[in-house]
Each structure stands twice: as C-alpha cells, then as structure tokens.
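Backbone-to-sequence.
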C-alpha cells in the first residue's frame, strides 16, 4: 500500500520508541529508514524495523549509550558509539567528520562499537549537503564466499560516496561489494520473487534462483569484489581494532549481545583542492555530459549515479511510498516484535 513519508516516519519512530529507544534516537533511525524506502532501497527501509525492535527489546542495542569523541590528530578521530543504535552513531560521527573537514580540509573518523546502521547513502549525503565529498565504508557479518572459496568469510561490506553540483544535484553511489546486498534477498523473499543466478549460491556452492535456498552471497566481479570487501573490512574493522572477517558478530546469532561493528567516514573539502566553485561547476558539467551520451540499445538515457533514486524520491514524496501491506500492518499494530530473528541462521527462511 501507499504510505506518505511523514506517516511512515511516525509509524517507525513510534515502534522503535516503544521497543526502548529514546524519542531522539528513534527519530534518527526512522529518518534513515524512510530515506531508504523513499529512494527505492526497500531492503534497508521499513522491512528492517521488526529486527531492530527485537534486538532493542532483548538488550542487544544500548539504549542509553555514552558517546565519546576523541581527536587523534588534526584530521583524524575516533567516535565510540558505546554500542548504541548504528544509525545514530553513524550520523553523529559524520557530523564530527564534517566539522573537521570544514576546518582542516579533510577528515577521517572511525566509528566503533555500533550496531547495523542501514543505508550508507544517508550519511555520505550529510557531507554532500554541506558542499563536501563524503565517503563511508562499514563491515558486516560474514555471509559471502571469498573468490575461490566454499565457506563465507566476509560480509557484504558496503561502500558509499556522495557530492553535490552547482545546482544542488547530488551524485550518490552506494553499493555492497557483493553482487547484491543481503537485504535484497530478504526483499525478494518477502515478495516471493526469484533472484538472478548470479547473486548467490546454495549449500552445495551451486548458483540458485530461489531466495530461500541461499547459503552464501557472491562477491561482485569475482576477485575484484573480493579485494574490495577485504579493503572495507581492513578500514572499518582491523584499522579500528575491532573484530574482522569471520570474527564479525552475526546479525541474528544472539540478539541479547552487542555487535561491536565499525564504520569509517572520509570527508574531503573541495575548497582545499580545486576550489569549491570550480569543483561544483566541473561536477555539474560531468553530470550533463553523461546525460547527453547516446544511449545503448535498450536504454532510454544515461543517468549519473543517484539520479534515478532522486527521481524516485521526488515521485514518492508526492504520491506516497509503496510499502508491503504486512509491514504496514506490523507498524500499526501494538506488537513490539514476533520473536522472529533471535538465534536464527542468517540464511534461514
């Protein structure tokens, strides 16, 4: 069914507040989840609320965290999230990185001890909206076979990038280092739809089109994606002194325990390089160049990264966001959660 943006935000915030988050933190999480849904990233939107609510209710997220921020150099810092909800830790640590980049030209801020933070595009867009370049990477629990391997080791380990042109148009790039994010598999399961045979493998290591038979995901572009996910794991795990690789905590194994995840923000101030005016003009020219390229057969036009998501956002802002009926019914209900996720195999039905 169609749900207006403000109503969806209110439903999510209310549910997470009832689960145990403060109103402020529930508001921030709702903002990040609605950002995903309105741009068409449903795998990181409202469908995640029940999982978060169950983890919060069972104590696996610190609802009263003591955040600390320590500068370790002129352009480097560590934000300790005290295992608070990941969306809030990621947002507040990006705010610190933005302030540092405005002052010193660049900032690298590691956020540690946090839970799952959702769509990284939200956080890099924080930087872009301040006329900065935002880059963010984060680790996730092992569910991907390394190239040439038969057992999962790394997570989907996403990478995101954003910046803004002279007319405030955004370039936004947000990708898992797998062919598809695990949330996409969950979305296909919820819709009873098949998946391409290039996304994942079954328990025997064979490609599968059945989302319910997925036993591991595949890295994008084989060895290249494998290398990228290793890079992300080093930057957001090893670099911050956190668990890494197959030592990263499971999303579902024990919802009473903190996850201790890591995320790294890199923020660059164009004023310290080509200059903001030149940067924004060149970026806009690049966007226009891409839009004016002759499209290949089967395509109507060439879009720059994030352009179609922005168009979906405008349309959904006006007409409402399509959300599965059972998700809306859950959000409207008095139920906190249905005890659906604790101690489950991440690939279980």
């Amino acid at each position: 069914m169609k749900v207006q943006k403000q109503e969806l935000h209110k439903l999510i915030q209310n549910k997470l507040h009832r689960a145990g988050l403060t109103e402020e933190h529930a508001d921030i999480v709702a903002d990040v989840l609605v950002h995903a849904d309105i741009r068409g990233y449903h795998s990181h939107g409202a469908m995640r609320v029940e999982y978060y609510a169950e983890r919060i209710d069972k104590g696996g997220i610190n609802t009263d965290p003591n955040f600390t921020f320590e500068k370790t150099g002129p352009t480097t810092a560590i934000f300790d999230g005290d295992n608070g909800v990941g969306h809030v830790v990621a947002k507040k640590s990006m705010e610190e990185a933005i302030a540092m980049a405005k002052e010193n030209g660049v900032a690298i801020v590691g956020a540690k001890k946090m839970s799952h933070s959702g769509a990284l595009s939200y956080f890099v867009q924080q930087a872009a909206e301040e006329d900065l370049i935002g880059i963010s990477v984060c680790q996730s629990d092992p569910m991907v076979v390394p190239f040439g391997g038969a057992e999962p080791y790394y997570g989907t380990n996403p990478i995101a990038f954003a910046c803004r042109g002279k007319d405030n148009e955004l370039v936004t790039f947000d990708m898992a280092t797998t062919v598809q994010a695990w949330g996409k598999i969950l979305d296909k399961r919820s819709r009873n739809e098949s998946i391409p045979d290039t996304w994942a493998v079954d328990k025997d290591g064979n490609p599968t089109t059945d989302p319910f038979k997925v036993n591991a995901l595949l890295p994008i572009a084989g060895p290249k994606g494998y290398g990228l996910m290793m890079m992300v794991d080093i930057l957001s795990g090893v670099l911050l002194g956190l668990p890494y690789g197959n030592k990263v905590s499971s999303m579902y194994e024990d919802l009473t325990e903190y996850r201790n995840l890591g995320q790294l923000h890199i923020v660059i101030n164009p004023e310290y390089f080509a200059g903001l005016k030149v940067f924004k003009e060149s970026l806009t020219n690049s966007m226009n160049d891409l839009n004016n390229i002759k499209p290949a057969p089967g395509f109507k036009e060439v879009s720059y990264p994030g352009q179609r998501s922005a168009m979906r956002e405008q349309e959904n802002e006006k007409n409402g966001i399509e959300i599965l009926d059972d998700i809306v019914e859950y959000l409207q209900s008095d139920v906190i959660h249905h005890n659906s996720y604790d101690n489950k195999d991440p690939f279980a039905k």
